[in-house]
Structure formats: structure tokens, C-alpha cells
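To whoever is covering the structure queue this week,

Two jobs came back overnight. Logging them here so there's a record in the thread.

Job A:
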Amino acid sequence: MNIDLIISADYVDDSKVKDKTAVVIDMLRATSVITTAINNGCSKVIPVVTVEEALKISNNKRCDFILGGERNALKIEGFDCSNSPLEYKKENVYGKNIILTTTNGTKAINKSVKAKNILISALLNAKSVSDRVIDLGNDLVIVNAGTYGEFSIDDFICSGYLIDCIIKKEKDVKLSDIAKTCHYIYLNNKDIIGFIKNADHYKRIKKLNLEKDLDYCCRKDIIDVVPEYINGQIKDYRLFKGNENEKIV
């Protein structure tokens, strides 16, 4: 298995993901939201790039959807939820359809659509995602959502942990230079919060008094679901069997 890494959504193009498994990471906070919502029993998450697209999908069926997301880390006016995973509790999302739009994460997912498989990872479920990656047996490209098109420390260290989980189980692995660097940084900075506290994205979230989100998103392997994106929607991959062509609405 070859493993490569893309540093932000703005660097994704079809040639980099085609015929590979893509794992999208936006640990602060979109992929942590998606993983949490799926774990808490939502029917599906529909990731879209723009607020306008989210409103269009929910038009005339507003009661059928939870609108969630952020712009500049803040809740979007008129939406039900922000981009805090702590809002996506079981009592709020069980059996519901969620439309999510975020500054970085949902953009990264939608730019990866030419991949053979698209998995959603955070620290919360990295070990389970690594198992799924190995089972699929494709070359892997890890897609960091980044922050406003630029490199993000938090996604990078999360990717390093995912790589570590994979190579502990799969011996036939070849890392690109950037993937080697990512893994090396994780091995020497296993205190995740201690490492990412100087990240601009971390500082932005902390400034908004969202320390509980930060603490939660930095927990390793407390969830075992593996969200997968197929045909515009995200579910735990085990729930897609025989329903891959299901319509979004």
C-alpha cells in the first residue's frame, strides 16, 4: 500500500485521488461532527460546500433536515446546529438527516469525489478507519481539509496517528516523503493537545470559548464507526450494503 497526503482541500485534484481510498480529516471540527453524528444514530449526513446548496436541499422539506455547520467557526444564521460535535447528541440527531456545510471539511469531501472510496476520519475513530483502509486494500491518500486553503497542524498530527495505526497492522506500506514527515511528527508529539495548541485554528476555537470541543476532538478512538461518502451522502460504511444508489432526498 502506498500512502500519500494532501495538505489542504485547495490542493486536491482528481489525479491525486483517482482509484485510491481517500480519507478526509478535519478534526477541528467537521469530521469529528460527522463521526459523532453517525455514531449517535443519524440517518445520514449530506456534506455540501455552500450555504445556498444546503438551503436548496432542505427547501420545502425543512422539518426533514437538521441544518448544521459554520462560517469562520461560528454558527450560520438560521441553522439548527453549529460545527460543535457536542451538539450532535443522540437525542438531537437519532434518525435524522443532517445537511452540513463548513468552511474547510465539507469542501475537502466534495473535492475528493473521484476517489475509489471516501472515508471520514478524526482522532475519535482513527483505529477503526485504519482497519477499513487495510480491508479495502487500495493505495491511500489522506486529505487534510486544512484551514482556509492552507496547511493545518491539527489535521497533520491526526493524519500521523492514522498512519501509525495502519503501519502497526499492515507491513507492506510505502510512505511518500510528506507522509513520512507526518508520521515522524506524530511519533515525537503524542501529546496531541500539547502539540496543536499553537495552531491558528486551535487558537481561533479557544478564543471562542470552545475548549470543550477541543478536549473532545483530541480524544483517540472513543468511536468505532467508519463514515463513508457515497453518492452525496455519508453513513457508516456497513449501512451502505445494497443501498449505494439511494437518492439524497
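Job B:
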Amino acid sequence: MKQVGVLVLSVLVLLLLQATILPQLLSAAVKPDLLLIFTVSCGLLCGREKAVGIGFFSGLLQDLASGNIFGIHTLSKMAIGYLAGLAEQKVFKEHIFLPMAAMLVASLLNSALMLALMTFLGYRIGWSAAMSGEILPSLLYNVLFSVPVHQTVYRLAKRWD
């Protein structure tokens, strides 16, 4: 039960950082998705069940906080958490390049999934403008922030074993 409390508290702290402090420190349009990074790290270290749960909870909170299309973050983070969790048994968890490579792939998949969902819902999206203007810079931030977040989740996961 303590583990669930720590995960919930972590998601809430990351949401607050992402919504309040990071926009002040970084460009307003482009910022890292700390909740995505946390979901992917939990998937790689704890498995798909926890990652799907964390993806659902963090995506739901992000949907509520952002005011965008409701459910789009929830669906995308659950899917990305599931995919990251599939790799749990197949990766060397201590390797420093693991979170960076995983975030590169996860950020691209997350962005493509969100754009596809928005297109499916009838929104006109300029895919090339979205890629160059927001997605690629955000991807770089996600890769940079992935290492400290992953290391923190790794330390927490070792305590739970």
C-alpha cells in the first residue's frame, strides 16, 4: 500500500512541476512531459500493469488540468505505458542509455498517437508544422529529463523489491 501512495504522490508532484514551475523556466510552448517520462520509466522498471495504471492516472490528471480534448492524454499514456512495460524483462535496467532511447521512441509514439486521435476526431492538424514546431523540441526535453526521472524511479523500485 505504501508503494501505491508513493506512486500517487510522485504523479501529483510531477504534474505540479509540469503545470507550474517548468513553464516559468522553459519556453511556454515547449516543455517536457514529465508524466510521460514517469510512465515510461515505471513501465521499464516495474512492468506493464503498474505502467498502465500510472498512465491512466497521470493521463487523467493531465486531461483534467489541460482543458484539451478529454481522454486524449489518458489513452496515449496508457498505451505508451503498456508498450514500455512489455520491454521490462528484455532490457538492462541500469544502463544509462535505456531511458534516453526509450523516451525517444515513446515521445514519438505518444505524439503520433495523439495527432492520430485528434485527426480521427475531426481536427485538422498540420503534421509537419506540429513535428517541427512543438514535437521535436519537446522530444529533446523529454530525452534530457528522462535520465534523472528514470534514476529516481529506479531507486524507488529497488526499495520495493
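Note for Job B: The helical segments are 2-25, 34-46, 48-66, 72-86, 97-120, 127-160.

Please reply-all if you pick these up so we don't duplicate work.
Q.
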